[in-house]
Amino acid sequence: MNALRERMQQAVALWAEEYFGANEIELYLFDDEDEDPSRYIAIIAVHGLDTWQAAEVWEEEGEIVSINHLGEGVPPEDAVWPWPD
To answer: Where are the alpha helices (DSSP H) in 1-85?
Structure first.
């Protein structure tokens, strides 16, 4: 994993913990190069919520400049909700 992607993973994890008030999350990060090469999509499972959540992550010149909640997200292919009912 490259350094930018690692920083994004960490930034989104911290953002999600604060935004959702949860300390257990599972995170998937995808490039969105078809739309904009500096936009990434994070799909997040948050312990305590019933649905996957989505966020967009923007970077400029290697710096993370914005993370925005997009609402309910579609889970990654073959992903299983990480917490039992």
So the answer is: 3-20
pTM of the model: 0.87
Distance CA 70, CA 10 (A): 19
pLDDT tens per residue across span 17-26: 999 999 899 9
In the numeric block, which tokens belong to residue 40? 């990434």
- Say if residues 58 and 38 touch (Cβ distance below 8 Å): yes
Residue with tokens 């500096």: 38
Nearest to 50, CA basis, from 82, 13, 10: 82
Q: What's the token pair of residue 70?
A: 């997009």
